[in-house]
Amino acid sequence: MIEFYKYEEKSELLDPNCDFKKTSQTIEHRKDPLLGTWCRINTDRAKRPHSSSGMLVDVDKRIKQIVKKSDNCFFCAENVLKKTPKHSFSDERITRGKFILFPNLFPFAPYHGVGVLTDKHFLALDKLNYKLWADALTGSISWFKNVHTHDSTARFASFNFNYLMPAAASLVHPHVQPLVDKRADNGLDLVLKKSYEYFSVSKSNFWQDLLDNDSSRFIGKTGKNVYWHAVFSPTCADEVVGIVCGKSSFMELSDDDIFGIADGISKVLRGLYSKGVRSVNMMINSAPLDENLGEFFYLNIRIVSRSLMVENYTTDRGFMEVLHNESIISTIPEDVALGLRKYF
Ligand SMILES: [Zn+2]
């Protein structure tokens, strides 16, 4: 049975801001119900001073300046067919609507694609509509099938998105990175192992149990089959998971599932944008392309927000996240769900 385990601790100090009277802050520890990993939440940390702080209006101005300076980009319509590589097998490039997929010039997997989402050099998060995502997903899935037909040992497909510099995007032109790997990456490997372990012990599917028992963090449903929740024990701020009920891999998705994923992504991004988020990471985790693991694993989409891009901003990954593998969070998952619900 799924367990949402958490406990609280207090940290006391004599506070210089209150005449050195005794004050305390609450630290909540939450255990991930699948992985068993911990995070810590202290909402007071959102108030801490930063050497480099700035207003949202400055960030938007700064993004505009970067967009202006980065013209003549490889992904813009006038360059994309001249300056990006082609695949050496099957379709040289894949296009769906405005979406164009080609190989990454600097890959870290044998099959590492780049998919340009739009012919516009820059679109704000709230302008990445469901149509762009649906084209990107159908184009990427068609490429996954080409790759797997060409090389049956390439079985682990994922769909990934870095948006703006705090999320590790090197170019501002919105683009995704579909991958097909020969082994599961660390994150997927652990999720598949833990999902199977849960199934072996409790004789039920963790992902179905999550859908059936997580109403306080439920955000909404898109299409007939895709359910969106805030993550109980997040690894990053505003972490949201979309779960495609009953489907384990990209190969099993129907047109309605793809619409549901695309519609949900655009709604989450619109909601995050309206609360001031300007940079995100996203990924979709799938079972291997040649297996149906629906008995114990459902395909899922994860979206997180990243640091606000003020000048010389502080990263949100410090020693706890990078070296101790434990995240420090200042947003409450139930509040994240509440805030996003009105966009569904
Ligand atoms: Zn461009």
What descriptive keywords fit this protein?
HIT family, subunit A, 14 strands, globular, 10-stranded antiparallel beta sheet, single chain, about 30% helix, about 350 residues, binds zinc ion, alpha+beta
- The helix/strand order is EEEHHEEEHEEHHEEEHEEHEH
Number of helices: 8
The overall average pLDDT, rounded, is 95
The secondary-structure class comes to alpha+beta
What is the number of beta strands?
A: 14
Helicity range: 25-40%
CATH topology of the domain at 47-69 and 157-165 and 178-341: HIT family, subunit A
Name the CATH superfamily assignment of the domain at 47-69 and 157-165 and 178-341.
Answer: HIT-like
**Gross geometry:** globular
Small-molecule binders here are:
zinc ion
Q: Architecture of the domain at 47-69 and 157-165 and 178-341, CATH level 2?
A: 2-Layer Sandwich
Q: What is the CATH top level name of the domain at 47-69 and 157-165 and 178-341? A: Alpha Beta
CA(first)-CA(last) distance:
29 Å
Our Rg estimate from Cα atoms comes to 21 Å
Q: Within the largest sheet, what's the order of strands?
A: 4-5-6-8-7-12-13-11-10-9
Strand content: 15-25%
Largest sheet: 10 strands, antiparallel
